[in-house]
Amino acid sequence: MSNQFDVIVIGGGPGGYIAAIRAAQLGKSVACVEKWKNPNGETVLGGTCLNVGCIPSKALLASSETFEHTAHHLAEHGITVNGEVQLDLAKMLARKDGIVSKMTKGIEFLFRKNKVTWLKGHAQFTARNSAGNYQIEVSGEGAAQTITAQHVIIATGSKARHLPNIPIDNRIIADNEGALSFDSVPKKLAVIGAGVIGLELGSVWRRLGAQVTVLEAAPSFLAAADDGVAKEASKQFAKQGLAIHLGVKIGDVKTTQQGVSIAYTDKEGKAQTLVADRLIVSVGRVPNTDGLGLEKIGLAVNERGMIEVDDQCRTQLPNLYAIGDVVRGPMLAHKAEDEGVMVAEVIDGQKPHIDYNCVPWVIYTAPEIAWVGKTEQQLKQEGRAYKAGQFPFAANGRALGMAKAEGFVKMLADAKTDEILGVHIVSSAASDLIAEAVVAMEFKAASEDIGRICHPHPSLSEVMRETALAVEKRALNM
Protein backbone atom coordinates (compact mmCIF):
# COMPACT_ATOMS: atom_id res chain seq x y z
CA MET A 1 0.00 0.00 0.00
CA SER A 2 1.25 3.46 -0.88
CA ASN A 3 1.65 5.92 1.98
CA GLN A 4 1.02 8.88 -0.33
CA PHE A 5 -2.57 10.04 -0.99
CA ASP A 6 -4.25 12.98 -2.66
CA VAL A 7 -6.64 13.38 0.29
CA ILE A 8 -6.55 12.13 3.87
CA VAL A 9 -9.72 12.34 5.93
CA ILE A 10 -9.33 12.13 9.70
CA GLY A 11 -12.54 10.69 11.10
CA GLY A 12 -15.05 8.21 9.69
CA GLY A 13 -18.30 9.73 10.93
CA PRO A 14 -21.01 11.20 8.67
CA GLY A 15 -18.88 14.16 7.63
CA GLY A 16 -15.68 12.18 7.20
CA TYR A 17 -16.91 9.11 5.37
CA ILE A 18 -19.07 11.19 3.02
CA ALA A 19 -16.09 13.49 2.29
CA ALA A 20 -13.91 10.44 1.57
CA ILE A 21 -16.46 8.88 -0.78
CA ARG A 22 -17.10 12.12 -2.67
CA ALA A 23 -13.36 12.78 -3.08
CA ALA A 24 -12.91 9.24 -4.38
CA GLN A 25 -15.80 9.71 -6.82
CA LEU A 26 -13.91 12.71 -8.16
CA GLY A 27 -10.88 10.55 -8.93
CA LYS A 28 -8.71 11.28 -5.91
CA SER A 29 -6.71 8.67 -4.02
CA VAL A 30 -8.22 8.81 -0.54
CA ALA A 31 -7.43 7.43 2.92
CA CYS A 32 -9.78 7.72 5.88
CA VAL A 33 -8.43 7.23 9.41
CA GLU A 34 -10.85 6.00 12.09
CA LYS A 35 -10.23 4.46 15.52
CA TRP A 36 -13.76 3.94 16.95
CA LYS A 37 -14.20 0.58 18.65
CA ASN A 38 -17.59 -1.01 19.27
CA PRO A 39 -18.40 -2.93 22.49
CA ASN A 40 -16.96 -6.08 20.91
CA GLY A 41 -13.59 -4.39 20.48
CA GLU A 42 -13.90 -4.16 16.69
CA THR A 43 -12.80 -0.99 14.94
CA VAL A 44 -15.79 0.35 13.03
CA LEU A 45 -16.76 3.29 10.86
CA GLY A 46 -19.63 5.70 11.40
CA GLY A 47 -18.41 7.72 14.37
CA THR A 48 -20.72 8.92 17.13
CA CYS A 49 -23.74 9.25 14.85
CA LEU A 50 -23.96 5.65 13.71
CA ASN A 51 -22.57 3.99 16.82
CA VAL A 52 -23.93 5.87 19.84
CA GLY A 53 -25.87 8.82 18.42
CA CYS A 54 -28.41 9.39 15.68
CA ILE A 55 -28.98 5.83 14.49
CA PRO A 56 -29.25 3.86 17.77
CA SER A 57 -31.26 6.60 19.46
CA LYS A 58 -33.78 6.68 16.61
CA ALA A 59 -34.02 2.88 16.72
CA LEU A 60 -34.90 3.06 20.43
CA LEU A 61 -37.27 5.95 19.86
CA ALA A 62 -39.14 3.86 17.27
CA SER A 63 -39.21 0.76 19.48
CA SER A 64 -40.30 2.65 22.58
CA GLU A 65 -43.01 4.49 20.64
CA THR A 66 -44.31 1.16 19.33
CA PHE A 67 -44.37 -0.21 22.88
CA GLU A 68 -46.25 2.80 24.24
CA HIS A 69 -48.69 2.80 21.32
CA THR A 70 -49.43 -0.89 21.79
CA ALA A 71 -49.86 -0.56 25.55
CA HIS A 72 -51.94 2.61 25.64
CA HIS A 73 -53.31 3.72 22.27
CA LEU A 74 -54.65 0.72 20.37
CA ALA A 75 -58.10 0.89 21.99
CA GLU A 76 -59.02 4.06 20.12
CA HIS A 77 -58.52 2.11 16.89
CA GLY A 78 -60.90 -0.59 18.08
CA ILE A 79 -58.07 -3.03 18.82
CA THR A 80 -58.00 -4.92 22.10
CA VAL A 81 -54.86 -6.56 23.44
CA ASN A 82 -55.59 -9.41 25.83
CA GLY A 83 -53.21 -9.48 28.74
CA GLU A 84 -50.34 -7.19 29.70
CA VAL A 85 -47.99 -5.90 27.04
CA GLN A 86 -44.56 -7.30 27.87
CA LEU A 87 -41.25 -5.51 27.35
CA ASP A 88 -38.18 -7.52 26.34
CA LEU A 89 -35.56 -4.81 26.83
CA ALA A 90 -32.66 -7.07 25.90
CA LYS A 91 -34.27 -7.86 22.55
CA MET A 92 -35.06 -4.19 21.96
CA LEU A 93 -31.43 -3.26 22.60
CA ALA A 94 -30.24 -6.13 20.40
CA ARG A 95 -32.42 -4.81 17.57
CA LYS A 96 -30.78 -1.41 18.00
CA ASP A 97 -27.32 -2.95 17.95
CA GLY A 98 -28.16 -4.95 14.86
CA ILE A 99 -29.19 -1.80 12.99
CA VAL A 100 -25.94 -0.10 14.04
CA SER A 101 -23.88 -3.07 12.83
CA LYS A 102 -25.69 -3.15 9.49
CA MET A 103 -25.09 0.55 8.93
CA THR A 104 -21.39 0.48 9.86
CA LYS A 105 -20.81 -2.55 7.64
CA GLY A 106 -22.56 -0.62 4.90
CA ILE A 107 -19.94 2.12 5.07
CA GLU A 108 -17.19 -0.48 4.80
CA PHE A 109 -18.85 -1.72 1.61
CA LEU A 110 -19.05 1.83 0.24
CA PHE A 111 -15.34 2.33 0.97
CA ARG A 112 -14.46 -0.81 -0.95
CA LYS A 113 -16.79 0.16 -3.79
CA ASN A 114 -15.20 3.61 -4.09
CA LYS A 115 -11.63 2.41 -3.42
CA VAL A 116 -11.23 4.44 -0.23
CA THR A 117 -8.39 3.14 1.96
CA TRP A 118 -9.50 2.73 5.57
CA LEU A 119 -6.66 3.04 8.07
CA LYS A 120 -7.61 1.83 11.55
CA GLY A 121 -6.10 3.85 14.37
CA HIS A 122 -5.48 7.31 15.75
CA ALA A 123 -4.25 10.07 13.44
CA GLN A 124 -1.80 12.73 14.59
CA PHE A 125 -0.08 15.40 12.55
CA THR A 126 3.70 15.15 12.77
CA ALA A 127 4.92 17.75 10.27
CA ARG A 128 4.38 19.60 7.03
CA ASN A 129 7.18 18.77 4.65
CA SER A 130 9.14 21.00 2.26
CA ALA A 131 6.70 20.24 -0.56
CA GLY A 132 3.83 21.55 1.54
CA ASN A 133 2.31 18.12 2.13
CA TYR A 134 1.01 17.03 5.53
CA GLN A 135 2.56 14.09 7.32
CA ILE A 136 0.29 12.11 9.62
CA GLU A 137 1.16 9.24 11.92
CA VAL A 138 -1.48 6.52 12.29
CA SER A 139 -1.10 4.40 15.42
CA GLY A 140 -3.11 2.10 17.63
CA GLU A 141 -3.52 -1.06 15.57
CA GLY A 142 -0.32 -2.81 14.57
CA ALA A 143 2.85 -0.90 13.78
CA ALA A 144 2.58 2.88 13.49
CA GLN A 145 2.85 4.25 9.98
CA THR A 146 3.28 7.68 8.47
CA ILE A 147 1.08 8.77 5.58
CA THR A 148 1.28 11.92 3.50
CA ALA A 149 -1.18 13.99 1.50
CA GLN A 150 -1.45 17.38 -0.11
CA HIS A 151 -5.02 17.82 1.16
CA VAL A 152 -6.32 16.89 4.64
CA ILE A 153 -9.86 17.07 5.97
CA ILE A 154 -10.32 17.05 9.76
CA ALA A 155 -13.68 15.43 10.60
CA THR A 156 -13.15 14.16 14.14
CA GLY A 157 -16.59 15.07 15.48
CA SER A 158 -17.47 15.73 19.09
CA LYS A 159 -17.93 14.05 22.46
CA ALA A 160 -20.39 14.53 25.28
CA ARG A 161 -19.68 17.47 27.55
CA HIS A 162 -19.38 16.36 31.16
CA LEU A 163 -19.99 18.47 34.24
CA PRO A 164 -17.30 18.89 36.89
CA ASN A 165 -17.80 16.80 40.03
CA ILE A 166 -20.34 14.54 38.28
CA PRO A 167 -18.37 11.43 37.28
CA ILE A 168 -19.86 9.44 34.42
CA ASP A 169 -19.84 5.67 35.00
CA ASN A 170 -22.50 4.88 32.34
CA ARG A 171 -24.27 2.71 34.89
CA ILE A 172 -25.88 5.02 37.45
CA ILE A 173 -24.80 8.30 35.83
CA ALA A 174 -24.68 8.16 32.05
CA ASP A 175 -24.01 10.39 29.09
CA ASN A 176 -25.71 9.81 25.73
CA GLU A 177 -23.67 6.64 25.18
CA GLY A 178 -24.58 4.92 28.42
CA ALA A 179 -28.21 6.04 28.21
CA LEU A 180 -28.64 3.92 25.09
CA SER A 181 -27.75 0.73 26.92
CA PHE A 182 -29.37 0.71 30.38
CA ASP A 183 -29.82 -2.93 31.39
CA SER A 184 -33.22 -2.21 32.95
CA VAL A 185 -35.88 0.46 32.88
CA PRO A 186 -35.32 2.81 35.82
CA LYS A 187 -38.38 3.56 37.94
CA LYS A 188 -37.22 7.15 38.33
CA LEU A 189 -34.92 8.79 35.78
CA ALA A 190 -33.34 12.23 36.08
CA VAL A 191 -32.02 14.11 33.07
CA ILE A 192 -29.79 17.18 33.30
CA GLY A 193 -30.33 19.18 30.13
CA ALA A 194 -33.50 19.77 28.11
CA GLY A 195 -31.79 19.93 24.74
CA VAL A 196 -32.26 17.61 21.79
CA ILE A 197 -30.46 14.60 23.29
CA GLY A 198 -31.98 15.00 26.74
CA LEU A 199 -35.51 15.19 25.38
CA GLU A 200 -35.06 12.25 23.02
CA LEU A 201 -33.46 9.91 25.57
CA GLY A 202 -35.86 11.04 28.27
CA SER A 203 -38.73 10.21 25.91
CA VAL A 204 -37.35 6.71 25.24
CA TRP A 205 -37.27 5.71 28.89
CA ARG A 206 -40.53 7.48 29.80
CA ARG A 207 -42.36 5.43 27.16
CA LEU A 208 -40.86 2.25 28.58
CA GLY A 209 -42.17 3.06 32.05
CA ALA A 210 -39.75 5.44 33.78
CA GLN A 211 -40.89 8.51 35.67
CA VAL A 212 -38.71 11.16 34.05
CA THR A 213 -37.72 14.53 35.46
CA VAL A 214 -35.66 16.93 33.34
CA LEU A 215 -33.59 19.69 34.97
CA GLU A 216 -32.61 22.57 32.68
CA ALA A 217 -30.42 25.54 33.60
CA ALA A 218 -31.84 27.86 30.94
CA PRO A 219 -34.83 29.98 31.97
CA SER A 220 -36.74 29.16 28.79
CA PHE A 221 -37.59 25.91 27.02
CA LEU A 222 -36.02 25.18 23.60
CA ALA A 223 -34.70 28.70 23.22
CA ALA A 224 -33.35 27.95 19.73
CA ALA A 225 -36.81 27.04 18.45
CA ASP A 226 -39.62 29.38 17.49
CA ASP A 227 -41.50 30.52 20.59
CA GLY A 228 -44.77 29.10 19.32
CA VAL A 229 -43.20 25.72 18.65
CA ALA A 230 -41.49 25.65 22.05
CA LYS A 231 -44.80 26.44 23.77
CA GLU A 232 -46.65 23.70 21.88
CA ALA A 233 -43.89 21.15 22.52
CA SER A 234 -43.83 21.97 26.22
CA LYS A 235 -47.60 21.42 26.38
CA GLN A 236 -47.36 18.06 24.62
CA PHE A 237 -44.50 16.83 26.83
CA ALA A 238 -46.40 17.85 29.97
CA LYS A 239 -49.44 15.85 28.78
CA GLN A 240 -47.18 12.83 28.34
CA GLY A 241 -45.85 13.13 31.89
CA LEU A 242 -42.37 14.42 31.10
CA ALA A 243 -41.62 16.79 34.00
CA ILE A 244 -39.37 19.67 32.90
CA HIS A 245 -37.99 22.18 35.42
CA LEU A 246 -36.39 25.32 33.98
CA GLY A 247 -33.97 27.83 35.49
CA VAL A 248 -32.38 25.36 37.90
CA LYS A 249 -28.86 25.43 39.30
CA ILE A 250 -27.33 21.99 39.90
CA GLY A 251 -25.60 21.42 43.23
CA ASP A 252 -24.12 18.27 44.75
CA VAL A 253 -24.76 15.00 42.95
CA LYS A 254 -24.26 11.89 45.09
CA THR A 255 -24.41 8.27 44.00
CA THR A 256 -24.96 4.99 45.78
CA GLN A 257 -25.12 1.44 44.47
CA GLN A 258 -28.87 1.88 44.14
CA GLY A 259 -29.24 5.33 42.71
CA VAL A 260 -28.43 9.02 42.70
CA SER A 261 -29.53 12.19 44.46
CA ILE A 262 -29.30 15.58 42.79
CA ALA A 263 -29.37 18.72 44.88
CA TYR A 264 -30.48 21.80 42.95
CA THR A 265 -31.91 25.26 43.35
CA ASP A 266 -35.16 25.88 41.50
CA LYS A 267 -36.06 29.02 39.57
CA GLU A 268 -37.57 30.57 42.74
CA GLY A 269 -34.26 30.06 44.56
CA LYS A 270 -35.54 27.23 46.75
CA ALA A 271 -33.30 24.27 47.56
CA GLN A 272 -34.59 20.96 46.17
CA THR A 273 -33.40 17.35 46.04
CA LEU A 274 -34.29 14.90 43.32
CA VAL A 275 -33.73 11.20 44.04
CA ALA A 276 -33.60 8.85 41.05
CA ASP A 277 -32.43 5.39 40.03
CA ARG A 278 -30.42 6.71 37.09
CA LEU A 279 -29.19 10.06 35.83
CA ILE A 280 -28.48 11.14 32.25
CA VAL A 281 -26.17 14.13 31.85
CA SER A 282 -26.92 15.82 28.53
CA VAL A 283 -25.45 19.31 28.54
CA GLY A 284 -24.05 19.67 25.05
CA ARG A 285 -20.99 18.43 23.21
CA VAL A 286 -17.38 19.53 22.77
CA PRO A 287 -15.23 19.14 19.63
CA ASN A 288 -12.67 16.33 19.37
CA THR A 289 -9.62 18.45 18.56
CA ASP A 290 -7.28 17.32 21.32
CA GLY A 291 -4.60 14.76 20.50
CA LEU A 292 -4.42 15.66 16.81
CA GLY A 293 -0.97 17.26 17.02
CA LEU A 294 -2.28 20.51 15.56
CA GLU A 295 0.46 22.43 17.34
CA LYS A 296 3.06 20.58 15.21
CA ILE A 297 1.71 22.20 12.06
CA GLY A 298 0.99 25.59 13.63
CA LEU A 299 -2.80 25.40 13.81
CA ALA A 300 -4.56 26.68 16.93
CA VAL A 301 -8.11 26.13 18.13
CA ASN A 302 -10.38 28.79 19.62
CA GLU A 303 -11.53 29.07 23.24
CA ARG A 304 -14.25 26.46 22.59
CA GLY A 305 -11.77 23.98 21.15
CA MET A 306 -13.08 24.52 17.63
CA ILE A 307 -11.08 25.04 14.45
CA GLU A 308 -11.67 28.37 12.73
CA VAL A 309 -12.69 28.03 9.08
CA ASP A 310 -14.11 30.17 6.28
CA ASP A 311 -17.40 29.64 4.43
CA GLN A 312 -15.91 26.71 2.51
CA CYS A 313 -14.34 25.08 5.59
CA ARG A 314 -10.76 26.14 4.81
CA THR A 315 -8.52 26.54 7.85
CA GLN A 316 -5.75 29.13 8.12
CA LEU A 317 -3.31 26.65 6.57
CA PRO A 318 -3.29 25.84 2.85
CA ASN A 319 -5.07 22.66 1.74
CA LEU A 320 -6.20 21.89 5.29
CA TYR A 321 -9.94 21.74 5.92
CA ALA A 322 -12.19 21.03 8.90
CA ILE A 323 -15.85 20.05 8.87
CA GLY A 324 -18.73 18.99 11.11
CA ASP A 325 -18.70 19.27 14.88
CA VAL A 326 -15.14 20.64 15.07
CA VAL A 327 -16.17 23.89 13.34
CA ARG A 328 -18.77 26.63 13.73
CA GLY A 329 -22.44 25.98 13.18
CA PRO A 330 -24.89 23.39 14.46
CA MET A 331 -23.60 19.98 15.51
CA LEU A 332 -25.79 18.09 13.06
CA ALA A 333 -24.84 15.01 11.03
CA HIS A 334 -26.47 16.29 7.84
CA LYS A 335 -24.64 19.60 8.12
CA ALA A 336 -21.36 17.66 8.42
CA GLU A 337 -22.26 15.56 5.38
CA ASP A 338 -22.94 18.63 3.26
CA GLU A 339 -19.65 20.17 4.37
CA GLY A 340 -17.85 16.94 3.47
CA VAL A 341 -19.25 17.03 -0.07
CA MET A 342 -18.46 20.74 -0.38
CA VAL A 343 -14.83 20.34 0.68
CA ALA A 344 -14.25 17.38 -1.64
CA GLU A 345 -15.59 19.47 -4.52
CA VAL A 346 -13.50 22.50 -3.50
CA ILE A 347 -10.40 20.28 -3.60
CA ASP A 348 -11.48 19.22 -7.10
CA GLY A 349 -11.57 22.85 -8.21
CA GLN A 350 -15.34 23.24 -8.19
CA LYS A 351 -17.20 26.16 -6.59
CA PRO A 352 -19.83 24.67 -4.24
CA HIS A 353 -21.45 26.51 -1.37
CA ILE A 354 -23.77 25.85 1.57
CA ASP A 355 -26.60 28.13 2.67
CA TYR A 356 -26.46 27.48 6.41
CA ASN A 357 -29.81 29.24 6.84
CA CYS A 358 -31.30 26.28 4.98
CA VAL A 359 -29.93 23.57 7.28
CA PRO A 360 -32.93 21.96 9.04
CA TRP A 361 -33.12 21.08 12.71
CA VAL A 362 -35.06 18.07 14.01
CA ILE A 363 -35.89 16.73 17.47
CA TYR A 364 -37.19 13.15 17.22
CA THR A 365 -39.61 13.20 20.12
CA ALA A 366 -43.32 12.45 19.76
CA PRO A 367 -44.52 14.66 18.27
CA GLU A 368 -41.38 15.52 16.34
CA ILE A 369 -40.13 19.11 16.18
CA ALA A 370 -38.45 20.50 13.07
CA TRP A 371 -37.59 23.89 11.69
CA VAL A 372 -35.54 25.66 9.05
CA GLY A 373 -34.69 29.32 8.61
CA LYS A 374 -35.59 32.18 10.91
CA THR A 375 -37.78 32.06 14.00
CA GLU A 376 -40.38 34.74 14.64
CA GLN A 377 -38.35 36.16 17.51
CA GLN A 378 -35.26 36.43 15.26
CA LEU A 379 -37.20 38.37 12.63
CA LYS A 380 -38.51 40.72 15.31
CA GLN A 381 -34.98 41.30 16.60
CA GLU A 382 -33.78 42.03 13.06
CA GLY A 383 -36.64 44.46 12.53
CA ARG A 384 -37.66 42.63 9.36
CA ALA A 385 -41.25 43.00 8.28
CA TYR A 386 -42.89 39.60 7.89
CA LYS A 387 -46.23 37.86 7.68
CA ALA A 388 -47.12 34.53 9.27
CA GLY A 389 -49.42 31.64 8.55
CA GLN A 390 -50.25 28.66 10.73
CA PHE A 391 -52.41 25.58 10.26
CA PRO A 392 -53.15 22.74 12.74
CA PHE A 393 -52.95 19.02 12.07
CA ALA A 394 -56.22 18.72 13.99
CA ALA A 395 -57.96 19.93 10.80
CA ASN A 396 -56.19 17.38 8.58
CA GLY A 397 -58.03 14.17 7.69
CA ARG A 398 -54.89 12.06 7.35
CA ALA A 399 -53.61 13.14 10.77
CA LEU A 400 -56.97 12.37 12.36
CA GLY A 401 -57.05 8.94 10.72
CA MET A 402 -53.59 8.20 12.08
CA ALA A 403 -54.59 9.46 15.55
CA LYS A 404 -51.67 11.86 15.36
CA ALA A 405 -53.37 15.22 15.11
CA GLU A 406 -51.12 17.12 17.54
CA GLY A 407 -49.19 20.18 16.42
CA PHE A 408 -49.12 22.53 13.48
CA VAL A 409 -47.05 24.04 10.69
CA LYS A 410 -46.05 27.69 10.91
CA MET A 411 -44.63 29.64 7.98
CA LEU A 412 -42.95 33.05 8.02
CA ALA A 413 -42.58 35.08 4.81
CA ASP A 414 -41.23 38.50 3.88
CA ALA A 415 -43.97 41.10 4.10
CA LYS A 416 -43.13 42.62 0.71
CA THR A 417 -41.58 39.90 -1.45
CA ASP A 418 -43.39 36.90 0.10
CA GLU A 419 -40.08 34.95 0.17
CA ILE A 420 -40.28 32.14 2.74
CA LEU A 421 -38.02 33.04 5.68
CA GLY A 422 -38.71 30.17 8.05
CA VAL A 423 -40.89 27.10 8.55
CA HIS A 424 -41.58 25.49 11.93
CA ILE A 425 -43.35 22.18 12.51
CA VAL A 426 -44.65 20.19 15.44
CA SER A 427 -45.94 16.87 14.07
CA SER A 428 -45.47 13.13 14.12
CA ALA A 429 -43.85 13.47 10.67
CA ALA A 430 -42.00 16.77 11.09
CA SER A 431 -38.62 15.29 10.10
CA ASP A 432 -39.99 14.37 6.67
CA LEU A 433 -42.29 17.34 6.14
CA ILE A 434 -39.53 19.88 6.75
CA ALA A 435 -37.73 18.73 3.57
CA GLU A 436 -40.31 20.50 1.39
CA ALA A 437 -39.62 23.73 3.24
CA VAL A 438 -35.85 23.29 2.78
CA VAL A 439 -36.28 22.82 -0.98
CA ALA A 440 -38.55 25.84 -1.18
CA MET A 441 -36.12 28.07 0.71
CA GLU A 442 -33.12 26.89 -1.32
CA PHE A 443 -34.99 27.98 -4.45
CA LYS A 444 -36.05 31.27 -2.80
CA ALA A 445 -39.70 30.32 -3.14
CA ALA A 446 -42.57 32.48 -2.01
CA SER A 447 -45.34 31.21 0.22
CA GLU A 448 -47.62 31.60 -2.80
CA ASP A 449 -45.52 29.03 -4.67
CA ILE A 450 -46.25 26.39 -2.02
CA GLY A 451 -49.89 27.42 -1.91
CA ARG A 452 -50.24 26.80 -5.65
CA ILE A 453 -48.57 23.36 -5.68
CA CYS A 454 -50.94 20.38 -5.77
CA HIS A 455 -50.41 18.17 -2.71
CA PRO A 456 -51.76 14.62 -2.42
CA HIS A 457 -55.03 14.10 -0.54
CA PRO A 458 -55.31 12.89 2.09
CA SER A 459 -51.80 13.47 3.35
CA LEU A 460 -49.99 15.25 6.14
CA SER A 461 -48.23 17.35 3.48
CA GLU A 462 -51.50 19.19 2.83
CA VAL A 463 -50.89 21.06 6.08
CA MET A 464 -47.80 22.66 4.50
CA ARG A 465 -49.95 23.95 1.63
CA GLU A 466 -52.71 25.17 3.94
CA THR A 467 -50.09 26.98 6.03
CA ALA A 468 -48.75 28.71 2.93
CA LEU A 469 -52.28 29.78 2.03
CA ALA A 470 -52.77 31.00 5.60
CA VAL A 471 -49.87 33.42 5.13
CA GLU A 472 -52.26 35.34 2.85
CA LYS A 473 -55.22 34.60 5.14
CA ARG A 474 -56.78 32.26 2.58
CA ALA A 475 -56.52 28.77 4.08
CA LEU A 476 -59.23 26.61 2.56
CA ASN A 477 -59.95 24.21 5.42
CA MET A 478 -60.02 26.59 8.36
UniProtKB/TrEMBL annotation:
Q: What positions does the entry give for NAD(+) binding?
A: G193, A194, G195, V196, I197, G198, L199, E200, E216, G284
> Which PROSITE patterns does the annotation name?
PYRIDINE_REDOX_1
What the record notes about the co-factor is: Binds 1 FAD per subunit.
Question: Chief localization class?
Answer: cytoplasm
Q: Which positions bind FAD?
A: K58, T156, G157, S158, D325, M331, L332, A333, H334
Q: Which Gene Ontology terms of cellular component type are present?
A: cytoplasm
Which family, according to the similarity comment? Belongs to the class-I pyridine nucleotide-disulfide oxidoreductase family.
Which GO-annotated molecular functions does the record name? dihydrolipoyl dehydrogenase (NADH) activity; flavin adenine dinucleotide binding
For this protein, what reaction is catalysed? N(6)-[(R)-dihydrolipoyl]-L-lysyl-[protein] + NAD(+) = N(6)-[(R)-lipoyl]-L-lysyl-[protein] + NADH + H(+)
Active site at which residues? Answer: H457
Organism this protein belongs to: Mycoavidus cysteinexigens
Q: What is this protein called?
A: Dihydrolipoyl dehydrogenase
Task: Give the protein's cofactors.
Answer: FAD
Q: Which SUPFAM superfamilies match?
A: FAD/NAD(P)-binding domain (SSF51905), FAD/NAD-linked reductases, dimerisation (C-terminal) domain (SSF55424)
- Disulfide connectivity for this sequence is C49-C54
Q: Keyword set for this entry?
A: Cytoplasm, Disulfide bond, FAD, Flavoprotein, NAD, Nucleotide-binding, Oxidoreductase, Redox-active center
